[in-house]
Design brief:
mainly alpha, Receptor-associated Protein
């Protein structure tokens, strides 16, 4: 396999977008390269599971359980991303401390926890009923999931076009194979063709960067002041 083919494959793999590259969750900021850190499907699953945790907390509190008991019961069946957080919250409540600061500290690393942290802190600071606050937090989290999925649907066409245009040069190589030409015979028989191949790789990379930036700007949340 020639250097050109390897270069095309590397560019296609590195620049391949996530399910919705560059789309930031509400309250979590927006960055065109955020998809490199965490798969989008995983972030949505985390949001949905956190909404379930908030619902379970609200149900336990409405049934008459104390916050300590509710957190202990829910932490036993909580998904892995949130179980350590709930265990730390339970320890803080057991010692008589304020759990709101625990939620806020974890929210710095996991912005998804912002809604739950704010609701819990509001209850501790102002005496607001905790069960309705948790139920409202669950609704907010599920609304974020639905908004994210609508963004994915609205940008699916643009991402499909980006993938198709990236794959076209590889189709040309397959056509060369059909005529008995190796990739080296297609691109490497002269300095001009090699220069064109390298230029194509560079332009493809630049095009991906520009497209991802434009897509991120198009779906970025608008802050009204």
């Amino acid at each position: 396999m020639t250097i050109t083919v390897v270069g095309l494959i590397i560019v296609a793999v590195l620049m391949w977008p996530g399910r919705a590259a560059g789309v930031g969750l509400a309250g979590g900021g927006t960055s065109s390269w955020r998809g490199w850190r965490r798969p989008e499907g995983g972030r949505l699953q985390d949001l949905e599971s956190l909404a379930g945790v908030a619902d379970l907390l609200a149900m336990a509190l409405r049934s008459g359980a104390t916050p300590v008991s509710a957190v202990r019961v829910v932490s036993a069946q909580a998904p892995r991303p949130w179980q350590p957080v709930l265990e730390e919250v339970h320890q803080e409540l057991t010692t008589g401390g304020a759990a709101g600061q625990v939620w806020r500290r974890h929210a710095e690393d996991h912005p998804e926890l912002g809604a739950v942290a704010g609701a819990w802190a509001l209850s501790e600071d102002l005496g607001v009923a905790l069960a309705p606050s948790m139920a409202t937090s669950a609704q907010v989290l599920r609304a974020r999931v639905q908004a994210r999925r609508r963004l994915e649907a609205s940008t699916a066409g643009a991402r499909a076009t980006m993938r198709m245009l990236t794959a076209l040069p590889l189709v040309g190589l397959l056509a060369g194979f059909a005529f008995g030409l190796t990739p080296w015979e297609v691109y490497g028989h002269s300095a001009v063709t090699m220069a064109c191949a390298v230029l194509g790789l560079v332009l493809t990379a630049i095009g991906w960067c520009i497209c991802r930036w434009v897509l991120a700007r198009a779906v970025a949340p608008t802050v009204h002041r």
